[in-house]
Design goal:
It is a single chain. The protein is an alpha+beta fold. The protein contains six helices and 14 strands. Among the domains are: about 85-260, Jelly Rolls, CATH 2.60.120; about 260-305, no CATH class. The strands form two sheets. Strands 1-4-13-6-7-8-9 form a seven-stranded antiparallel beta sheet, with no helix packed on it. The protein has a seven-stranded antiparallel beta sheet with strand order 2-3-14-5-10-11-12, with no helix packed on it. β10 (about 205-210) and β11 form a beta hairpin. The chain starts with a helix and ends with a helix. It is found in: Cytoplasm; Nucleus.
């Protein structure tokens, strides 16, 4: 009985073994199929990566000749503004620049040392300044500010812009034929340096006012006056200049204005000294609207240049300045009454 009783149990065990073998075969087939899918997906992703890398390599090859990008973060790259040379009294001169300088954005922006730097590069403006003229221009430090020096200033005709191409130096002001301000806040002339203001940073707008009636050069930072830096500039053939020793740095010409020293200039200068802002000055002046538009379009920089400055104590205008402003207000009121009477007579 015991032997016969073992037969069904063997059949059951054999059947279970067969079922397990079938399950194992199915699992193996399933593993093979999953492995096949994984290999297929891996091949697809690998092909995609190779395609993307090849596209990037081709784009890099195309952009080798383009001097784009700045030292530091490229996400701060500015949008290109429309540049109309007719709106500027001077622009940069293509033939008057160091070899390691590239012009961008319709020649409004100067790109120094596009690849690497091994010295000092500089560029000069197109037009020579004439005596009896008032000049004002602004330069924006549109990239990172670093290195031995980055400078703004003026230089004489015949200055060799490639003289220090293999040397890092403060080229504007290194000799007697140039005058400049450094991003460190120092001013330079004839190899001498002195402290003048605080250090400039990326995005700073440096204003330059060259008065060729008095022979002075003044500087501004972001619209605020820094004072007169140099005197005795009459009788010299001067041009605007900028320079940099740092690789992949940029400076942008924001504006350039000029006007002859005249009664019109003096009137605008005196008005701006007694009124806090150009918009207030133009709005309150008892003048025809057409003349106001002309002053706003042609002379706005003069109003901004000579706007009313606070006293040294930081408590606003001095008593003398306030009294002068009160006198000006009274004169404007009288002028308004006079013009109203003239209008009534015309009716």
């Amino acid at each position: 009985m015991s032997g016969n009783g073992d037969i069904p149990s063997r059949k059951i065990s054999n059947r279970r073994g067969f079922i397990r073998e079938e399950q194992n075969e199915r699992n193996v087939e399933h593993d093979h199929s999953n492995r096949g899918h994984r290999h297929l997906l891996a091949d697809i992703f690998a092909q995609g990566r190779r395609h993307i890398q090849s596209r990037r390599r081709s784009q890099d090859i195309e952009e080798i000749s383009k001097p784009t990008g700045t030292f530091g973060n490229d996400d701060e790259e500015e949008e290109e503004d429309e540049f109309n040379e007719a709106d500027f009294c001077w622009v940069w001169e293509e033939e008057c620049k160091s070899n390691d300088v590239v012009f961008q954005n319709n020649n409004s922006e100067v790109y120094f040392h596009p690849d690497y730097s091994c010295g000092t590069a500089a560029v000069r403006g197109k037009n020579q300044f004439q005596e009896g003229e008032e000049h004002y221009w602004e330069i924006k430090l549109s990239s990172a500010v670093y290195g031995t020096d980055m400078m703004v200033g003026v230089g004489c005709d015949g200055m060799d812009l490639n003289k220090y191409k293999s040397q890092f130096c403060s080229i504007i002001g290194k000799e007697s034929n140039s005058w400049g301000i450094s991003y460190f806040g120092t001013v330079h002339h004839n190899g001498k340096t002195r402290e003048f203001t605080k250090k400039f940073e990326r995005g700073s707008v440096i204003g330059c006012h060259l008065d060729l009636w008095k022979g002075t050069l003044s500087f501004y930072k972001n619209g605020e006056p820094l004072g007169i830096a140099f005197e005795g500039l009459l009788g010299k053939k001067l041009y605007p200049m900028i320079s940099s020793t740092a690789a992949r740095t940029k400076m942008k010409l924001v504006c350039s204005y000029k006007i002859n020293f005249s009664l019109q200039y003096l009137c605008c200068k005196e008005i701006s000294k007694n009124i806090s802002s150009s918009s207030e000055a133009l709005a309150d002046l008892p003048l025809p609207s057409g003349l106001k538009r002309y002053l706003g379009f042609r002379m706005d920089w003069v109003f901004r240049l000579h706007k009313l400055q606070p006293s040294s104590s930081g408590m606003g205008p001095s008593r003398k300045r306030v009294k002068r402003k009160d006198d000006q207000i009274e004169q404007r009121l009288l002028m308004n009454e006079l013009m109203q009477n003239v209008k009534l007579d015309n009716y």
